[in-house]
Amino acid sequence: MAAKKRTTKQRVTDKKVTDQLEDAFLAGLGALSNAQKAGEKTFDTLVKQGEKFRKKTTKKTESLIDDVQDAIREMSDDAQSRATGLLDQVRDKSRLKKLNRAFDSRVADAMDRLNVPSKNDVDDINRKLNKILRLLDEKPKVAPKKPRAVSKRKTAVRTTKKPAKKTTRKTARKKAKKTVRKTVKKAA
Length: 188
Hints:
single chain; mainly alpha; 3 helices; about 0% strand; rod-shaped
């Protein structure tokens, strides 16, 4: 009999354990069900928060884009005004150059009428004079002639001609300068 009681006790405890296990399992399923319900609610709230965040960032992004566009417009306006100022300066310089050219040409015409040689005329004359002086310096020196021996046979009277003047370098330069001066006066 004692053995029979033990089996019933075992059955009772086995039933209790099985019931407890079944209750635990059912409690787990209930928790899962609650989690699903709460998960759906949490998911819905996250979606709503995401939409709000996107709207905020879109507004901020749009305002930043507007600010950048305004800054770019200001910079382009500033650059255009500077470029316009530079163009005006360049145009004024070209007008000044035209005015200078007109003045120079009128002065040159007046000096030409007064027969005043221009700088170009004087430079041309100086070049020609330098060329003449170089040619005179390069001219080979003439070797002195040996005196001729007078022959005794001829007793005829000779008519003496004046010996040709030998021009020295100094006199040659003086003559060249005189001719240059004459040509300058004629050109003027």
